[in-house]
TrEMBL record:
One of its GO terms (molecular function) is carbon-nitrogen ligase activity, with glutamine as amido-N-donor. InterPro entries: Asn/Gln_tRNA_amidoTrase-B-like, GatB_Yqey_C_2, YqeY/Aim41, YqeY/Aim41_N. Keywords: Transferase. The keyword Cytoplasm does not apply. Pfam families: YqeY. This is Aspartyl-tRNA amidotransferase. SUPFAM superfamilies: GatB/YqeY motif. The keyword Protein transport does not apply.
Length: 147
């Protein structure tokens, strides 16, 4: 079942439940998917859908950090609720230990020995963790293991 179909079904359920917060987030996700499909001129594949969801999650995480820094607790709560809704559509997130293992395998595979070869390792790891891990976390683990 495509992401758009799932979003439509969940949108109907949220309407029936009168869950405005969830409904708003689902509508934003649906709009993002539809806009991307229009831009490309064809339906998105699973990888494209994952890219959209990852982008939406990243935007919310960045907003969360900004709101926390500004002391806006009212908006922090709202963003946390939105993050929970977006997480439902993302694949299960990898633990730091799982990411560390993937990075270690990539270092071995690429033969990287220093931080200068950071790009080689990231090129191997990122396609494997797409949508399953935050890029900044992966970045940090790669730097840590290469130094």
């Amino acid at each position: 079942m495509s992401l758009l179909t799932t979003l439509n079904d969940d949108m109907k359920a949220a309407m029936k439940a009168k869950d405005k917060a969830t409904l708003t987030v689902i509508r934003m996700l649906k709009a993002a998917v539809q806009n991307e499909e229009i831009k490309l001129g064809k339906p998105l594949d699973e990888d494209g859908e994952l890219t959209i969801l990852s982008r939406e999650m990243k935007q919310r995480n960045e907003s969360l950090a900004e709101f926390k820094k500004a002391g806006r607790d009212d908006l922090v709560d709202k963003i946390n609720q939105e993050i929970l809704v977006v997480e439902k559509y993302l694949p299960k997130q990898l633990t730091d230990e799982e990411i560390r293992q993937l990075v270690q395998d990539a270092i071995t595979k690429s033969g990287a020995a220093s931080v200068k070869e950071f790009g080689k390792v990231m090129a191997i790891v990122m396609p494997q963790v797409k949508g399953k891990a935050d890029g900044q976390v992966v970045n940090g683990i790669v730097k840590e293991l290469l130094s």
